[in-house]
Amino acid sequence: MNNFKTMNQEEFFKKITAHAKEYGFIFPSSDIYDGLAAVYDYGQNGVELKKNIREYWWKAMVQMHENIVGLDAAIFMHPTVWKASGHVDAFNDPMIDNKDSKKRYRADVLVEDYMAKIEEKINKEVEKAKKRFGDAFNEEQFVTTNARVLEWKKEIETISHRLYGAMEKNDLADIKKLIEDLGIVCPISGTRNWTDVRQFNLMFATQIGSLAEGANTVYLRPETAQGIFVNYLNVQKTGRMKIPFGIAQTGKAFRNEIVARQFIFRMREFEQMEMQFFVRPGTEIEWFKKWKEERLKWHLSLGIPAENYRFHDHEKLAHYANAATDIEFNFPFGFKELEGVHSRTDYDLSRHAEFSGKKLQYFDPETNESYTPYVIETSIGLDRMFLAMFSYAYTEEKLEDGSERVVMKLPPILAPYKVAILPLVKKDGLPEKAREIMDNLQYDFMCQYEEKDSIGKRYRRQDAIGTPLCVTVDNQTLEDNTVTVRDRDTMEQIRVNVDELHEIIRKKISPKR
Ligand code: ATP
Fold this sequence. Notes:
Layout: H1 9-22, E1 26-28, E2 40-42, H2 46-63, E3 68-70, H3 79-84, H4 87-90, E4 92-97, E5 104-106, H5 107-133, H6 139-145, H7 147-168, H8 172-181, E6 198-201, E7 204-208, E8 216-220, H9 225-230, H10 232-238, E9 245-254, E10 269-279, H11 284-300, E11 309-313, E12 323-331, E13 334-343, H12 347-356, E14 362-364, E15 369-371, E16 374-381, H13 382-393, E17 394-398, E18 404-408, E19 419-423, H14 430-441, E20 447-449, H15 455-465, E21 469-473, H16 475-480, E22 482-487, E23 493-497, H17 501-509
Parallel strand pairs: 3-9, 19-20, 19-21
Antiparallel strand pairs: 1-2, 4-5, 4-6, 7-8, 9-10, 10-16, 11-12, 12-13, 13-16, 14-15, 17-18, 21-22, 22-23
Adenosine-5'-triphosphate is lined by residues 223, 255, 257, 266-267, 270, 272, 337-340, 379-381, 383-384.
């Protein structure tokens, strides 16, 4: 099992960052210039893993749904889009600086971290009780009756009520007061010497056209969703789409994040995979529930145990939403948002209709009426999904012979390479035979050929990048056309005929349905 679970966030990021770099998954952007904060490049293995996640999502959303089609909208959009969407006025995070360390924080995150610590205390208390009571332990009863746990829960509730209330009212002074009342100190300087809380818009702005022509401010899109909304009518009409239908898109988004110390969990340039599903008003809650379940199923189909996922239903809803949930993943630094599923009402289409003066409606032949469709959105960060898979997969193992290995237990369908073809030695015609096998498999699967170093070393290198199967070609192969196939996770080897390889690999990488 993944052995990160006891690490703190800093230790974890150090380890994972080092492995990601050493094995060509992720490099800091502009590495030779010492990097750029919260911006990363994907290396030769990372680009494959990332592409595989994207493709797995696209297949599930577009290929497997007749009523969902794709889109690839531009990153630049008309500036009014962001006025209509509310991003110009309200896409802000409250920030606060510590005057001693000069570090900047998201004020709400400081308070949320404080609440997470109380949550941790509750979890520890539950674990302790579990040990004490053994089989007779009833967790549900314990957390609803234990005086200490109840007190901590009440504390979280009070803080959360105050924080989200202040955020809603944009009462920045009260957020600061809350930080002071809770005695929150800067993790670097350890002091409570805070500035006032200020709002900070997360959009990157730039100019389009030369100044002489009359420059215009444009934004790098902070989400891909708006590209879908402004194309709603284009796609609906040209695709002759009937409600309910969806439009899916993957692509870059940009946010000038204040807290940028979390590797690829929070980046300034990242990729989203979003789907907007247009439904008849009044049916949205039913669809919201359906998409919530569908999306969880997608995650589980990768074979990672269900206990690593949980829903976090929003109590406080954004003004445009009438239901929202996060799918949270058990990252080594705790459960955190991986994906959002939101019921966004008709807010976006109505706003764009208002600002553009175009009618963005649907004539429903079944009910004979026109209406503005309601929207269910599913939105997942591709890089965050990468981190979820990467951190889950990273495993340090002690082997029976006392040696150690690092193995990336990636879901096989996502692994950069599906199979490595390894001639046992670099002579006796083995490389030629290995190449021949590779030629036959390469068309269907990402294969890697390696002949350098001992076979043991080569297995370790493949383990470290998560290759599910290694095929070893030896002298017997030349005699009877059989090879050994080694399994990444169990390290077991079986001898099979070369003709069976195709089917073995196919089975290995097929997802659970
Ligand atoms: P958070 O609360 O973590 O800032 P959010 O609620 O603002 O996220 P959304 O606007 O709902 O996020 O974006 C949808 C998804 O995009 C998120 O679930 C997350 O996976 C991803 N995402 C958002 N911001 C970032 C970022 N800065 N870096 C990487 N992924 C991100």
